[in-house]
Each structure stands twice: as structure tokens, then as C-alpha cells.
Amino acid sequence: MSRPIELSREARQAASAGLRQVLADELDVEIGALQADLILDRVILDLGPILYNRAITDARAVIAARAEDMDEALYGLQRQTDLR
């Protein structure tokens, strides 16, 4: 079961303000805070899971690399013996 992606109040305000600024600067479109929040909700709904999954994939790669490094370090700690 997945939880919806939520932003902190500060992050949400910053994202909403940034969205308003981009629309004003790039498209000469002025929108209000409520409209920006609605667009932001839709962007989070559509793109949030994609970006989240990408972050998980990236984190897995980092963990796998670290696990490989640890495995090599453990082999380096093994001592030679004829006994099994």
C-alpha cells in the first residue's frame, strides 16, 4: 500500500510560488495561489510516483555498491587455513 506524496508546508509554498513564477516569466500567465496549488497537486499526483521510483532505484544502486565494497572488505579479512 502506498501513501500519497506529501510536501511540508514550507516546501509546498515554495513549489507553488516557483510554479507561479515560471508561468509568469515563461508564458506570461498570471495565476493565483489556489490555481497554483491545484496544478501542483496534479503534478505531484502524476510525476511524484515516477520521481519517487527513480529515487528508490538510485538508492538501491548506492546500497548495492556499498554492499559490494563491504563484501570485498570481508573477504580481505578472511584468514588462510587448510581446515574447512
Characterization of this structure:
The chain has 84 residues and is mostly helical. The protein has one domain. It is built from 2 helices and no strands. It has helices at residues 9-27, 33-77. Helix 1 crosses helix 2 (33-77).
Comma- or semicolon-separated keywords:
84 residues, DUF2164, single chain, mainly alpha
Short précis:
The protein is mainly α. 76% of the residues lie in helices and 0% in strands. It contains 2 helices and no strands.
What is the secondary structure topology, with strand pairs?
Layout: H1 9-27, H2 33-77
Helix pairs in contact: 1-2
Cα distance, first to last residue? 46 Å
Number of strands: 0
Number of helices: 2
Q: Using the CA coordinates, give the radius of gyration.
A: 23 Å
How are helices and strands ordered from N to C? HH
Q: What composes the largest sheet? A: none
Mean pLDDT: 93
Strand proportion: under 5%
Given as residue ranges, the uncertain stretches (5+ residues, pLDDT < 50) are none
When the domains are counted, the total is 1
* Global morphology: rod-shaped
Binned, the helix content reads over 70%
Structural class: mainly alpha
Pfam families: DUF2164
InterPro entries: DUF2164
